[in-house]
Amino acid sequence: MKWIRKLVLLAGMAVVSQPAQAGHDCDSDPEVTPPLLVVGASYANAKSPIDPATGTGPLLGFAVNFGNYIDLGSALLQNRKLGRAVINEAQAGATTFDRPGWVGYHRQFSHALSRVTGLDPATGELFFNFDYALIEISNDCLHSDADVVPQEQSLPCTLEGMDATIDRVIATAQEIQAMGGTPVLNLYPPYDAMDLPLTGETFGLLWVIDESSYRTLADRYASRVAAELPDAIVVDAWAGNFMHLGDGIHPNGRTMKQAAKHIVNAITEHDRSCGDDADDDD
Question: Helices 211-228 and 159-178: crossing angle, nearest 10°?
Answer without folding.
Answer: 30
